[in-house]
């Protein structure tokens, strides 16, 4: 097993990671016992989906099912094409088609410090160290073609979501502001062009609210944007109805989900998988309240007082099959996670999956919809870190494990052609942040 000691001043050569792109099933010294441990995982029969088979080491970093391969790219510390070192804390991400046939990735960096990584001329707040980078990847070789800063001067860019109009909505997870010593207020959503090169100064979409944002999903038919809030123990699920879907800076209407006939409904415990809850929406009168830097709950409190429903730590959010899928990281009876589905055409909420134990699912974080149906769910665990697959009928299987350390997966997204899953290892003290391209026999399973 390889162990990395990582220092932000070091640059680990890209070539040393790319050389480890090999087929699953290769033999690696010291990892023989891993296969047995993974195969022996005790998942209740009623929750188990066939998946793609047991996980086996596919290289030094990941264990994957037989037949799957990966390539590492976009590594923390590598010099990007614009002369800026690749930032740390890789997080939410989405993939878009480019006119030349290549893949555009827009990737968040969940950084809260004051070391800005892009030019001051385009920074929202010159003091802030978060933002996004954009990568261009060849769809066949999965090699990196280009990379650059696409948003800077923001803080704690955790997740976000792709839009039908070809942008990535990057979400700030903290609401600090001028009162706390920053140049600008934070806690907003930013719309990042997938086709540009970060030439424009970042502008917040203040109508979408100032709170602990996590992720968004857009209904392509209506242009309504759904938003999750990552706060423990009280989070809301919101929707933003734009006044003009072609210009979100014109504002719109922010609302919070409520359960019809059951004001202040508590989804955090005591829920039944498959039960359908009729939904209504209550207004948020002041989406950008003064004082949100000191009190992150000011937006939630407006919705709660109007009868809105309470969740806990809402994180991943993705549009798929006419619905919004989102997760509550520590929701459920054993506080290990829930996967929810909202169907706008029915105004109906249902619980797709609830974890019964850490061996099944532990603290779901970012997620994405597969073009073949089903969900890819990244865990934010303490202990071994997995990516899981979840079917729409509520069954689960393991798809990948980080075999170097316990650093979380984040930002799973499929390429436009559906042949490549791109995902991050966030990075931390023992290893750099890395983006992986994974491919293989998808037709064998439900992803």
Low-confidence stretches: 1-41
Number of strands: 26
- What string, H for helix and E for strand, traces the elements in order? HHEEEEEEEEEEEEEEEHEEEEEEEEEEE
Overall spatial form: globular
Q: What is the terminal separation in angstroms?
A: 29 Å
Mean pLDDT: 90
Beta content comes to 35-45%
How do the strands of the widest beta sheet line up side by side?
11-12-13-14-15-19-18-17-16
The residue fraction in helices comes out at: under 10%
The main β sheet shows up as: 9 strands, antiparallel
Radius of gyration using CA atoms only? 21 Å
Number of helices: 3
Helix-strand category: mainly beta
How is the secondary structure organized here?
Layout: H1 14-18, H2 32-39, E1 55-57, E2 62-65, E3 69-73, E4 90-97, E5 103-109, E6 130-137, E7 144-154, E8 157-162, E9 167-172, E10 189-193, E11 213-218, E12 225-229, E13 237-242, E14 252-259, E15 276-283, H3 298-305, E16 314-320, E17 323-328, E18 338-343, E19 348-354, E20 364-369, E21 375-379, E22 386-390, E23 396-402, E24 409-414, E25 421-425, E26 434-439
Antiparallel strand pairs: 1-2, 2-23, 3-26, 4-5, 5-6, 6-7, 8-9, 9-10, 11-12, 12-13, 13-14, 14-15, 15-19, 16-17, 17-18, 18-19, 20-21, 21-22, 22-23, 24-25, 25-26
């Amino acid at each position: 097993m390889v162990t990395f000691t990582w220092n932000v001043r070091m640059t680990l050569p890209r070539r040393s990671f790319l050389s480890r792109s090999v087929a699953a099933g290769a033999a690696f010294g010291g990892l023989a016992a891993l296969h047995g441990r993974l195969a022996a995982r005790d998942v209740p029969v009623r929750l188990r989906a066939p998946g793609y088979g047991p996980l086996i080491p596919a290289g030094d970093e990941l264990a994957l099912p037989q037949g799957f391969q990966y390539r590492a790219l976009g590594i923390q510390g590598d010099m990007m094409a614009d002369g800026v070192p690749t930032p740390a804390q890789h997080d939410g991400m989405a993939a878009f088609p480019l006119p030349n046939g290549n893949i555009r990735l827009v990737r968040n960096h969940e950084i809260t410090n004051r070391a800005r990584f892009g030019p001051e001329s385009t920074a929202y707040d010159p003091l802030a160290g978060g933002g996004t980078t954009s990568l261009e990847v060849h769809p066949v070789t999965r090699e990196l073609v280009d990379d650059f800063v696409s948003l800077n001067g923001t803080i704690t860019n955790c997740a976000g979501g792709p839009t039908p109009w070809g942008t990535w909505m990057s979400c700030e997870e903290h609401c600090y502001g001028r009162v706390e010593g920053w140049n600008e207020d934070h806690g907003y959503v930013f719309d990042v062009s997938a086709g540009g090169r970060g030439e424009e100064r970042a502008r917040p979409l203040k109508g979408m609210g100032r709170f602990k944002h996590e992720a968004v999903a857009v209904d392509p038919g209506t242009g309504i944007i759904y938003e999750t809030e990552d706060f423990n123990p009280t989070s809301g699920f919101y929707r933003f109805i734009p006044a003009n879907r072609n210009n979100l800076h014109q504002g719109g209407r922010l609302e919070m989900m409520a359960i019809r006939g059951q004001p202040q409904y508590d989804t955090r415990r005591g829920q039944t998988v498959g039960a359908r809850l009729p939904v209504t929406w209550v207004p948020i009168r002041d989406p950008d309240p003064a004082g949100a830097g000191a009190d992150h709950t000011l937006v939630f409190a407006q919705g709660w007082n109007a009868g809105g429903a309470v969740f806990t730590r809402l994180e991943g959010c993705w549009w798929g099959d006419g619905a919004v899928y989102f997760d509550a990281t520590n929701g459920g009876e054993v506080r290990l996670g829930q996967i929810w589905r909202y169907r706008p055409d029915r105004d109906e909420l249902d619980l797709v999956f609830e974890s019964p134990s850490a061996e099944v699912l532990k603290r779901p974080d970012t997620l994405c919809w597969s073009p073949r149906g089903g969900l890819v769910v990244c865990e934010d665990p303490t202990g071994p870190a997995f990516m899981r697959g979840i079917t729409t009928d509520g069954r689960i299987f393991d798809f990948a494990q980080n075999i170097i350390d316990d650093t979380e997966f984040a930002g799973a997204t499929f390429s436009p052609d559906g042949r490549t899953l791109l995902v991050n290892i966030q990075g931390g003290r023992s290893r750099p942040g890395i983006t992986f391209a994974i491919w293989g026999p998808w037709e064998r399973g439900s992803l």
